[in-house]
Amino acid sequence: MKFLADENIDQPIIEHLRKENHHELSIYETNRGIDDDKVLEITNSENAILLTSDKDFGEIIFRKKMISTGVVLLRLAGLSNNEKAHIVASVLEKHQDEVYNSFTVITSETIRIRKLNL
Hints:
Layout: E1 2-5, H1 11-19, E2 23-26, H2 27-30, H3 36-45, E3 49-52, H4 56-62, E4 71-75, H5 81-94, E5 102-107, E6 111-115
Parallel strand pairs: 1-2, 1-3, 3-4, 4-5
Antiparallel strand pairs: 5-6
């Protein structure tokens, strides 16, 4: 799978996904400081799934009705980077076919996947 990590995604998560042969692009490595609309534009142009911990993407997708190839919102506060990386990799492995064209929220206890019908 191809992912674009927002600049707020911890490096251990990015590295873990890269080790599992996911194509992982990183805003932190390439375009630091760009606004959320531009992040979403890059995500769409790369046909990637956005990984972020920024709740603003919910508003961008649902209120502004911006098109997205998919967003995975990480709500994993309080966990170590290693724990976060394993949870994210596990969820993406189990639900890889469901995250495209969806808004997915991953917490330490739940996974919510909402198809985007924009």
